[in-house]
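Notes continue from the previous slide.

Worked example: a multi-chain complex. Inputs as given:
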Amino acid sequence: MSGKIYYNGNIVDRENAKVDIEDRGYQFADGVYEVVAFYHGEPFTLNEHMERLVFSASEIDIELPPAEILIKEAKNYIKETEYADKNAKLYVQVSRGVASRSHAYPDGMEPIIIMKAGPLDPNPEKYFQEGVKIITLPDERWSRCYIKSIALLPNILAKKKAKKAGAYEAIMTRDGFITEGSSSNIFIVEDETIITPPATNYILNGITRQTVINRLAPELNYEVKEESIPYYTLLNTDQVFLTGTTTEIMPVVQINDKVVGNGKVGKETKEIFEAFRELTGFVRGK
Amino acid sequence: MSGKIYYNGNIVDRENAKVDIEDRGYQFADGVYEVVAFYHGEPFTLNEHMERLVFSASEIDIELPPAEILIKEAKNYIKETEYADKNAKLYVQVSRGVASRSHAYPDGMEPIIIMKAGPLDPNPEKYFQEGVKIITLPDERWSRCYIKSIALLPNILAKKKAKKAGAYEAIMTRDGFITEGSSSNIFIVEDETIITPPATNYILNGITRQTVINRLAPELNYEVKEESIPYYTLLNTDQVFLTGTTTEIMPVVQINDKVVGNGKVGKETKEIFEAFRELTGFVRGK
């Protein structure tokens, strides 16, 4: 292992980045996180991610420093790493801190903030150009998915099932409607309209999701609707794509054993994908 | 901090008991746990707890050594600690292990098993003799609560709400029926019959719950029914008690602002409480 880790305001060597066994993040999933992409050393939507981190924390009664401070810390930290001018992925984790094990947390604990930079590890270019397969599964998660918590056990089990089925992602359904993927949001395209499930408590309102809705689709003059998508609508629509920080804009051409549309990446999906690449300044292979 | 920690087969000093920041237990709540009571150095239902640990792990695709081995390890470990002949609480945590962060776990990972002994910290005797208050809350947890996973964020938030309300526990309701507490199971008594919600996927089938159903109630000649309990039945019943490893048999005399029955601990509850004390060999103050 190599590299430097941000650990509560200090930069430490990777091999010294350990947490106590009574860190509540370890014993209770008592924490929240973010993943931020950096393109050529420049953060993409860092502000939005850090604001969401502060929000997620506050929803579980953890008080963080203001987002502006975290943003500065993240930028300074990245400069100290081997990713200073590269494409990178920044993982930020917050736990409530260390305390003798007891469900009810003490008041006034000092949260622990850890950041780790790593390679962006982009998906194979083939996935973006030709599309991927997804599977569908019942949504087994808790009812507060709008919090980006580290209680990710249902998500990782769903993702593993997807991988075992040779799929990129598992899309979850709750009460007959689709919610989102194990680590991505989902969109469909119908008659040139971009549709995605609304940001209820059952989904994480992804930053890339918001970028599509508020920026890319309007710039391309596509109408966007946030409305519930029944399972059968998903199976019978012509275009599907996923969004996420590392997923970026990922076309879907197969759902379980069913081919989506004509099995090729559709026009609107391709335009949104290209607009996203332009926006991030990402150049493949650099 | 003092004491000795069991860490994957080794006994280490407390201050050296750390886990890597990429332990999947820390980043994904990718693990399971147990809490076992020892009375005067003798484990209580240790076999049942370790068998459940192996079961929970297998449900999330983690392969553990057979329960018999874990039982031996636990007994040997306790002997090495200051709790060798005392009342104690043994915390056992399993995580899938350490890997570069990615939702889908690699196959064949080496799980990490940690055990920590601590004082049993019994509840105040007054709680057992006079009963406690509970509150009710919507059940926000995932749909696989039969797995004793470390993804406890909803549980700790519920427990904290209970404490803030001056209550011992929060009992959760799903679709109009009660499920369980944030760290305990619940029973009611109606016409000398002991009733508790069935062990569906929405509850953790507690070892103390099973002890009441399979051992204490039959010995006392009480009929036991495992059937769904509507919220309004809970509010209007005469006797309520909770069960759990550290909760033991805990009478409830108030639910939210409503007094249960006549506000005193009922006859059947008291008998079950006393039978449990006898069974564990627990002598207060020893």
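Summary box: Chain B touches chain A through 50 residues (CB under 8 Å). DSSP finds eight helices and 16 strands in chain B.
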